[in-house]
Amino acid sequence: MTYYSKKYDVIVVGAGHAGCEAALAAARMGCSVLLMAIDLDKVAAMPCSPSIGGMAKGQLVKEVDALGGEMARVTDQSAIQYRMLNTKKGPAVQSSRTQTDKMRYHTVMKAVVENQANLDMKQTMVERLVVDNGAIAGIEDHTGFGYRAGAVVLATGTFLSGLVHIGFASIKAGRAGEFASYSLPENLKELGFTLGRMKTGTPPRLHRASIDFTQFEKQLDDSEPKPFSFFTEEITLPQLPSYIGRTNAEAHQIVRQNLERSALYSGIIKGVSARYCPSFEDKVVRFPDRSSHQIILEPEGLDTEEIYASGLGNSLPMEIQIEFVRSVKGLESAEIMRPAYAIEYDYINPVHLQPTLETRLVGGLYMAGQINGTSGYEEAAAQGLWAGINAACKLQKRPRFVLDRSQAYMGVMIDDLITKGTREPYRMFTSRAEYRLMLREDNADLRLMQIGNELGLIGDDALKDVNERKNQIADEIKRVKGTVIKPGDHSAAYLQSKGTKTLTNGVYLDQLLKRAELDYGVVEILAPAAVALGKKVVQQVEIEIKYEGYIQRQFNEIKKYQHLERIKIPEGFDYDAVHGLSNELKEKLNGIRPASLGQASRMDGMTPAAISVLMIALKSRG
Fold first, then answer.
1. Do 16 and 157 form a contact (C-beta atoms < 8 A)?
2. What is the pTM of this model?
């Protein structure tokens, strides 16, 4: 095999959301990086929903941004609708979501990657990993040409043995219209990896002019949209509405009568699909009592007539898709520009990954995104950043980059994957994060920018701004807690106007702020700060005071959690020699190789008694 003359530090295979973040992170940390893609015209493509963020996903994007990633910045240059979700609930579960111009997103991200120092891009298909003495040495492409590197990140998305299904038609493709990779997954099997099969899908795209939007409810953007990135100062693109409608009994009946022609229900598809994002056939079968299901019509961009029909995903033949789509009120004349389809692909169970996302079988080989059994652009970007940082850290002999469950949503996701694995496409939820009140969207910069700065991904000026805000927040909380408000006409009139009790005795101002009827306005009216504070400072002060009791409770829970995390388990620890563990647990422990007693405690099937046995065994072995 002939090798390219240049040897790279890191090669990233796949230029989707995971691949772009991995390549940028490693390059910005000083590594020479090669980003390889089957088609460079599809860099950072959005093959499914034209949106970024959403429940828990918004938190991931903010964390990527706070650590120096690119997704949020590119989103702000391409978003055409901003919405904050769950505004009627507490700050722990509020998340940002955008509708995004998918072509602009691709164009902007590709330009960022192309102009990044230390980073080359090449269009080719990787067919084989070059491994030398158990460690990665490079890759070989489909022409037999090789590229050498000290680390490789696989971010292959749905391209490993990809198979697109529309009715009984099955097409070998990584996405509709794109080549799939069949040699690389075979090579992974030869190296000892066990591959599984998953399924996802995407709904049809409709022509805007063929839709009667008067039959749908218009959904507008937030009146005061907030940028996704902590570094964006202004939103410049026009904002477009989405439209909400419902399916009906006729549409459901059409699908029921044609289930045998669905790739999903005819038995053609073998991969496991996601429970939380069912296809239309799934909805009809699993919820037979429902007379309708929600659909959302979302624009795919400012310069295209394509409309994404969220909620109508299926794997039916084209003629059935046309029939049931047109049975929906407002879509009677709808023209399908791109049909819905299902796609199957290979993945690797992530329990065989280390906390850095480096594989246990091959040193220097990292995996990120859907190859790890996850779904979603945001989950992929977070894993890509994580893998890219760790590849750079290993080559530069720096400490590994690992965040725990109390530090970040991405720490929760990685811990879930490597500890429990996944048998269905993994998606981030706020419910997965037990310390979600501490891991809010609004404080991601306060939590993580220091770490991003230490990695070399966040500038000193940004860190200085964060530290100044931390000081302002602490000073203002101290001032509010030390300020006494006495009964009087001034306070009485204001409190009455807010529908809350007036004072009969003096109270500390923070006790007033904790009242449900009041916000930070009570501070600004009754005891304003000497110097006006910024919105970000005010927001943090209000949250910290209003939720003080809950935050303290969670802080105490984190201390207990960290106690078990500090008890490390040596890499070569002999579980078979531990008396009192069941054979089933020994097998699981030998497969997962938990790094700490805390990680072991979260394994499926682990019991308090088994944790006690492990703790005794660790102590007895020093």
1. yes
2. 0.95
